[in-house]
Design goal:
Helices cover 32% and strands 25% of the residues. By secondary structure, it is an alpha+beta fold. It has 14 helices and 14 strands. The relative contact order is 0.15.
Length: 309
């Protein structure tokens, strides 16, 4: 599971830390940052000579034409050395024709739509990648991290975007919502309820979905006998409605939720968002952890079960 981002961490560091990181980030590209290039991202990568594996992977995934289009795009580009750090046999397997979709999913996780400069990255908690999943940023101790990778060169300008060089290949979440929730060991009641309601299969489908997931402790706060009653076969429809009330179609990450007033759920009713004491609430439930990626959506952890009217 990817590391969760608490909602009240709306900035990654104090202003002083960010300024320090920005300075370091700019310095790491000193001497390597060309003037505005007339070459697109692909041609720039080819000429650089240190992205041979990335270019080969882009070709194998059928993404060359995309990255040569107008964009603009921001590419967090792993070097040949970064690809060499992958477990033995991983790259060879990914380059096989039968794994083209998996390879494309990994490569598009390294791409964001729009042009994000070093300054933009150091001031953000992350961005929705072209893969659809959240790509996290962290500026601290004079370094800028993209997930677990460190930016080693910034702001290589291209005709259709910008490249930031990173020292590791970053990988999107491969497990679906049910698998991620099961691995967390704190959503056993939710998974039992979803299964009883006949929804576990749906939450493993392509989606994508946003799930506001009550923990086991949240379910334990329900009045005595409520959960036991809902889990009875005769209450399957009511249970399904409650579970659907916790699910929104599409990926709604915390920055979007903080700006939104409400969102329509699969139950056919909307849930309202509100801010209080630097926390985000969905109805009366406080969101205690946000932006937990899954291959088919995103999970936000809540401390209370929300019940539709």
């Amino acid at each position: 599971m990817k590391i969760t981002r608490l909602l009240n961490r709306t900035v990654l560091a104090t202003a002083a830390t960010i300024l320090t990181a920005t300075s370091s980030y700019a310095q790491c590209s000193s001497g390597a940052r060309p003037a505005k290039s007339q070459h697109d991202i692909v041609d720039t990568a080819v000429e650089a000579g240190q992205f041979n594996t990335l270019v080969a992977a882009v070709k194998a995934a059928g993404l060359v034409d995309v990255l040569k289009s107008d964009g603009p795009f921001t590419v967090f580009a792993p070097t040949d050395e970064a690809f060499a750090k992958l477990p033995k046999g991983t790259l060879k397997s990914l380059l096989q024709p039968e794994n083209k979709d998996k390879l494309a999913a990994i490569l598009t996780y390294h791409v964001a739509r729009g042009k994000l400069t070093a300054s933009d990255v150091t001031r953000a908690t992350g961005v929705v990648s072209a893969n659809g999943q959240w790509l996290g940023f962290k500026a601290a101790n004079g370094k800028v991290m993209v997930d677990a990778a460190t930016v080693v060169t910034a702001d290589i300008k291209c005709a259709n975007g910008v490249i930031h060089v990173i020292d590791q290949v970053v990988l999107p979440e491969q497990q679906n919502i049910v698998q991620v929730a099961a691995g967390a060991k704190t959503f056993n009641t939710l998974l039992t309820a979803a299964t009883k309601a006949g929804l576990a299969g749906a939450l493993q489908s392509d989606g994508p979905f946003t799930v506001f997931a009550p923990t086991d402790e949240a379910f334990a706060k329900l009045p005595a006998g409520t959960l036991e009653g809902l889990l009875k076969a005769e209450n399957k429809e009511r249970l399904a409605t409650i579970i659907k009330y916790h699910v929104v179609s599409g990926r709604v990450y915390s920055p979007t939720a903080m700006k939104a007033k409400d969102a329509g759920t699969l139950a056919g009713q909307s849930v309202r968002f509100s801010r209080k004491d630097n926390s985000l609430f969905v109805e009366k439930a406080r969101i205690v952890a946000t932006d937990i990626d899954a291959s088919n959506g995103v999970i936000h952890v809540i401390d209370t079960v929300i019940i539709p009217g």
